[in-house]
């Protein structure tokens, strides 16, 4: 099914919104945060919900939307990165925005020699990091395998101090201070995670055992989004067109990270020092989230966008 997000009033409302927001930012001396989104969009349902939320966030300037692979998965398609890239472009068609979409590595990093997956996505991260004003950091939000991010810093280590990375992955036992790396995103590229754990990059992680609180039901999604807008209907369709579309409840993992970055007041973070075999470095971990507030905000923000 094909959808279009177009109306006679769309251009007027977009221009009015942009002008109003620009004036507000100018008045308070701020500018939108520069964001690179890196997602394995074709893998699950949650990526599309998270990306849609990110695209309507006025405090963010998304400078690139990268596709990453999920090739190591047991249910992988022949070219998972291309599948994610196609869905990224399809999703952007519902918005009146122009965001560059970049293809990432087609598989995990190599085991020897030049370890990097040289891709448009990796070089886009390098480019945007170098374009970041002095004293600031480029925010990279990784929703899947870390292949593109790790490849970028492997190719050009000089960008490490210029990046603030947010990632959904790993699990953390906060009571016993145990980091585990056997979740989906970590397993998609263990080499990439190892490189980042031993790097100097500013790393902020929401573990899967915390993001798991972000539960959605199909009944609620259908009631709130179906028929409201072409994009809303598309997100509903994605739920039941997925390979396990009969599920009545899902964890919308990636959305938890997006909302936690936008609304830090709805999340508790702690600084942990990893063990020697995991880099022996400091990482900011999300310990808990207010999933209900985040879920309400997702619907409120998206439905508000639909009404423009």
Descriptive labels:
disordered N terminus; Inosine-uridine Nucleoside N-ribohydrolase, Chain A; 20% strand; single chain; two-stranded antiparallel ribbon; eight-stranded mixed sheet; alpha/beta; 12 helices; 308 residues
General description of the model:
The protein is of the alpha/beta class and 308 residues long. The chain has one domain (27-212, 251-306): Ribonucleoside hydrolase-like (Inosine-uridine Nucleoside N-ribohydrolase, Chain A), CATH 3.90.245.10. 41% of the residues lie in helices and 20% in strands. It is built from 12 helices and 12 strands. The strands form 3 sheets. Strands 3-2-1-4-5-8-12-11 form an 8-stranded mixed sheet, sandwiched between helices. The protein has a two-stranded antiparallel ribbon with strand order 6-7. Helix 3 links the parallel strand 2 (60-67) and strand 3. It is globular, with a radius of gyration of 19 Å. The protein starts with 9 loop residues before the first helix and ends with a helix. 43% of the residues are buried.
According to CATH, the homologous superfamily is Ribonucleoside hydrolase-like
Average pLDDT number: 91
Please write the string of helix (H) and strand (E) elements: HEHEHEHEHEEEHHEHEHHEHEEH
Strand order of the largest sheet: 3-2-1-4-5-8-12-11
């Amino acid at each position: 099914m094909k959808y279009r997000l177009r109306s006679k009033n769309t251009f007027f409302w977009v221009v009015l919104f942009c002008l109003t927001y620009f004036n507000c930012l100018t008045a308070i001396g701020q500018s939108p945060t520069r964001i690179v989104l890196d997602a394995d969009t074709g893998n699950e349902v949650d990526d599309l919900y998270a990306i849609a939320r990110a695209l309507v966030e006025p405090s963010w300037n998304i400078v690139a939307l990268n596709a990453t692979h999920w090739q190591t998965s047991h249910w992988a398609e022949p070219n998972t990165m291309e599948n994610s890239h196609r869905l990224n472009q399809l999703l952007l068609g519902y918005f009146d925005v122009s965001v560059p979409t970049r293809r990432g590595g087609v598989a995990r990093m190599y085991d020897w020699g030049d370890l990097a997956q040289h891709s448009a996505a990796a070089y886009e991260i390098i480019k945007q990091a170098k374009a970041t004003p002095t004293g600031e950091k480029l925010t990279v939000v990784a929703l899947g395998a870390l292949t593109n991010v790790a490849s970028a810093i492997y190719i050009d280590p000089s960008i490490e101090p210029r990046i603030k990375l947010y990632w959904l992955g790993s699990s953390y036992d906060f009571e016993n201070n145990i980091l585990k790396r056997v979740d989906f995103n970590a397993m998609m590229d263990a080499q990439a995670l190892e490189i980042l754990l031993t790097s100097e990059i500013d790393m902020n992680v929401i573990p899967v055992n915390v993001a798991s609180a972000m539960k959605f039901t199909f009944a609620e999604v259908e009631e709130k989004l179906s028929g409201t807008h072409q994009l809303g209907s598309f997100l509903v369709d994605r739920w039941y067109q997925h390979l396990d579309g009969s599920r009545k409840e899902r964890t919308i993992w990636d959305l938890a990270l997006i909302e936690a970055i936008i609304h830090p007041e709805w999340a508790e973070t702690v600084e942990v020092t990893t063990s020697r075999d995991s880099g022996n470095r400091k990482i900011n971990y999300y310990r808990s989230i207010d999933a209900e507030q985040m879920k309400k905000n997702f619907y409120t923000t998206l439905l508000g966008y639909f009404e423009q």
